[in-house]
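Q: Hi! Curious about what DUF4878 domain-containing protein looks like structurally. Here's the sequence.
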Amino acid sequence: MLLRRRAASAFVRKLLYFASICGLLWLLWMGLRGMMSTGEGNQAVKVLNEFYTMEQSGNFGGSWELFHSQMKKKFEKSTYVQQRAHVFMQDMGTDTFTFELGEPQAEYDIRTDSNGEELGKVYRITVTQHYKTRFGTFDIVQPCYVTQEDEEWRVLWIYKEKEQP
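A: Let's find out. The predicted structure is below.
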């Protein structure tokens, strides 16, 4: 009888030891996974959210500052601010919009247009803007791109023509 208790006690200790090791490994895995998931993709979403929050409030000069240098070459700041305000606020007759951001998808070696330089790793995030205008309610769905430039996250739009089949 005593032998059975010792054997059972040793088995329980081994089982608890094994369960503890498995628990610690699981916690380590979840911690590492959590650190990776709060990485670049989430930083890209954060910057794009900041960009469209500024656009939403009419702060087009602030949103322009978050553009990648390739975008800044396409639009002078004053021109961008005037045109965005004119098209959305004056022409469409809307004060603001709501928006949703999709999940970030990593892409590599894209170009903003056929003559643009290749970008390394970028995150494509689909943005849906919801407008209520004098012309009715409608949505604009646009893939946006976010990449690092000089260690800062920057926003890009793609102007490359679709290839014909």
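A: A fun detail: The mean pLDDT is 85.
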